[in-house]
Write a structure and sequence with these properties.
The structure holds two protein chains of two kinds. Chain A is of the alpha/beta class. In chain A, 23% of the residues lie in helices and 23% in strands. In chain A, 47% of the residues are buried. Chain B is globular. The chains are: A alpha/beta, B alpha/beta. The interface between A and B is large, with 72 and 96 residues.
């Protein structure tokens, strides 16, 4: 008997007491309405919670977004910037940095040497201060937001949803998904929080609000 | 393969003996008290933010209960979805089979045979459970742990002591020594003049591991969840080492216990709210990666999912014990457990320490299979205070399972003995004493007298004969010189109404 058959038959033997009339796809769930964890100001809550995760959050009107990206790059002294395919040109600032395009795909060595990457997001979550990437246009493949030391995210206010369930309901599970809450961090040594272990040390969120 | 070999390193001293050694380590106890206290407070604060926390727990428990009742159905759906998305599914009945599958997959990844084969690993309970690193080493493959705490444990030739923070028993200066001594053996040495500041230590780990991430051809991970309807696999982490392993190498091998499957992608919302808050006390962990099979031009070209039984179907067969399979490995039960807080994780002798380990390990290895393995002692490593049940985000009734397994352990022990056990004799004697007030008074008097003869510093330590099994793991306070019944008789009987020592009555008259 193959391992597949032996595992499956052991599972079935263990479940011999379960009535055959039960519907395996119909989970009897407690009938409770889901609570609203976010309150009325989801944009404010997102900014506050993301900052609690030690992301740098700035709120700007649409006209000021490119300049805000520029200030984030200047703050860390970044000299090279990875720009994913499909990233809006009008969000890119003028500046002294060299621009790296991922077409043809950059090598891991090139990405490792790059200082910063700038992306849009798929959605953002207020309650948890999370940005969500589905690696679509403007977000790049997963390695792009992983190897450079600074990740700058441009989030439009209308992309923010209140809570985790709303965000998941908007995402396509067939795409690779990455949920990011603050920069890379560890608390493995005496529970003291340290930022930037393996992922980006710096997460900048440029929050674009109409005003 | 016999049970005890599956859950690695069980077979070292049984809990009572290991706990005694751990209790004598005051530094360990202080570290643990501080660490568990910190995480405990953070968890309470963020759980309190969600007013429907109890509903979320209820829902999570219902989803898990239902999934387990139809596990075959959901596993077959998962297999189909993963395969349709370009992944390959393997089934492993036990640790040996799982290790063989992974070893063969690593060997098949090309490269010349004399090249040193290596893999990078995301922290994973399942691969610890099956002893994968050791099996790979036997096959000439080096497995690099990339989670900072796991790296500390691996470089220190040590064992993890906590599910979430495996190196919680090590302090910063010990970690510096391990890095300075060992990093050069495995790759890039620790920087000259490395300090013991956690920031510097984390930076040393970053530099040491970065070169491995960039050249690795194969990565091995566990899985926090997998959705049967879409084939989506989820890994939750903080450092980014998970993302490195899941996206940079050409081949990704994920080893997942069969109980980790969820019916649908939509079910993830409940668990992604419960897990980070319960484990690290954060609203969300820094990184959550979800992937479905392989994606052209992004991430690994080959994805293998190994579905692991290794004692889980035997656990599933026990209708009381099966609820332990609902565990999402958050470690909240460890941090609230008064026993774990004093003994630490190593005393449990298993990759799963704390309350969940005390119910999961004996079931995975089989409680009656080999009592010398130490597994049979684990259900007794608890005060049954119930704090673990209150903390569990999926509402596993750990005390209920503990009591259930204690009965099984006693039964398994009884079958092996002809003579009655010390417990049975003690219970018989207690029954006789308690049935008669006179006999009880006499017994109490005798106990008070006897206890003073053996006590030191007001505590009773080791006792002789059949009492030794009780006293071996407990300090017992001295019984009072006078029992409550004797005190009542002396102070509250009419003859003593004028007693100046209790003189309230007289004064009021």
């Amino acid at each position: 008997m193959s391992d597949r058959e032996s595992v499956l038959s052991a599972v079935r033997a263990a479940l011999a007491g379960v009535p055959g009339s039960e519907d395996p796809d119909g989970i009897p769930l407690p009938d409770t309405p889901r609570a609203d964890h976010a309150g009325p100001d989801i944009v404010g809550l997102f900014a506050e919670r993301a900052a609690e995760y030690r992301a740098t959050v700035v709120r700007v009107p649409a006209a000021g977004a490119a300049a805000a990206v520029g200030r984030a790059l200047a703050r860390t002294g970044a000299r090279s910037l990875v720009v994913p395919p499909g990233f809006p040109e009008d969000l890119l600032p003028e500046g002294p940095w060299s621009r790296l395009e991922d077409a043809p795909p950059l090598t891991v060595g090139q990405l490792d040497r790059a200082d910063a990457v700038v992306t849009t997001v798929a959605t953002a979550i207020a309650v948890t201060g999370t940005v969500t990437l589905d690696h679509g246009s403007g977000q790049g493949r997963r390695a792009l937001t992983l190897l450079p030391d600074q990740h700058i995210c441009v989030v439009r206010a209308d992309q923010i949803v209140p809570d985790v369930p709303e965000a998941l309901s908007l995402l396509d599970p067939r795409r690779p998904l990455t949920l990011i809450s603050g920069p890379s961090a560890t608390s493995d040594i005496e529970l003291e929080r340290v930022e930037g272990v393996h992922g980006p040390r710096t997460l900048d969120i440029v929050l674009v609000v109409d005003a | 393969m016999s049970g005890a070999d599956n859950v690695v390193w069980l077979g070292s001293p049984a809990f009572p003996q290991a706990a005694r050694t751990a209790l004598a380590d005051t530094q360990l106890r202080a570290n643990l008290r501080r660490a568990t206290g910190t995480i405990r407070d953070k968890r309470l604060a963020v759980a309190a933010e969600l007013e429907d926390w109890e509903d979320l727990r209820e829902t999570a428990a219902a989803v898990k209960r239902h999934t387990l009742r139809h596990l075959d159905h959901h596993l077959l759906r998962l297999e189909k979805s993963v395969t349709a998305a370009g992944g390959v599914v393997h089934w492993a009945a036990d640790a040996a089979e799982a290790n063989r599958i992974v070893t063969d997959l690593v060997r098949a990844t090309g490269g010349s045979d004399d090249e040193t084969r290596e893999v990078v690993k995301v922290k994973s309970m399942a691969t610890q459970e099956i002893g994968l690193n050791e099996a790979l080493a036997d096959a000439g493959i080096r497995a690099y742990e990339t989670d900072l705490a796991e790296l500390i444990v691996q470089l220190g030739r040590d064992r993890p002591s906590h599910i979430l923070v495996p190196a919680i028993h090590r302090n910063r200066s010990e970690i510096r020594e391990i890095f300075r001594r060992e990093m050069g053996e495995w790759g890039r040495p620790a920087p000259e003049g490395l300090s013991d500041d956690p920031r510097d230590l984390a930076e040393a780990a970053r530099l040491h591991l970065r070169e491995k991430f960039l050249r690795a051809k194969v990565a091995i991970s566990g899985a926090n969840f997998a959705a049967a309807d879409t084939g989506t696999v989820v890994v939750v982490e903080s450092e980014g080492n998970g993302r490195m392993c899941l996206t940079l190498p050409e081949t990704l091998i994920t080893v997942m216990g069969i109980e980790k499957v969820l019916p649908s992608f939509a079910d993830l919302d409940v668990f992604l709210q419960l897990l980070p808050r319960s484990s690290t006390g954060e609203r969300m962990n820094p990184y959550t990666s979800l992937w479905t099979g392989v994606t052209e031009g992004d991430g690994p070209r080959n994805f293998h999912l190994v579905l692991l039984d290794n004692g889980r179907t035997a656990t599933l067969a026990d209708e009381v014990g099966r609820q332990a399979l609902a565990c999402i490995r958050c470690s909240a039960c460890l941090n609230v457990c008064p026993v774990y807080e004093r003994t630490g994780g190593h005393a449990y002798g298993s990759v799963y320490p704390g309350p969940i380990g005390a119910v999961l390990t004996p079931q995975l290895v089989g409680i009656g299979s080999d009592t010398k393995s130490g597994a049979a002692s684990l259900p007794f490593a608890s005060t049954l205070c119930g704090a673990c049940y209150d903390a569990c985000p999926v509402k596993i009734n750990i005390p209920e399972v503990l009591v259930h397994l204690r009965a099984e352990a006693v039964e398994a022990g009884r079958r092996k003995r002809v003579l009655p056990t010390a417990e049975a004799l003690a219970m018989k004697a207690a029954g006789a004493a308690l049935s008669s007030p006179g006999r009880l008074a006499a017994a109490q008097k005798l106990a008070a007298l006897g206890a003073r003869l053996v006590a030191r510093d007001g505590r009773i330590g080791a006792l002789p004969g059949p009492f030794a099994r009780w006293s071996a793991s407990r300090d017992t306070p001295l019984p009072p010189r006078e029992t409550f019944r004797a005190w009542w008789r002396r102070t509250r009987t009419p003859a003593n109404e004028d007693d100046p020592a209790t003189g309230e009555r007289k004064g009021r008259g």
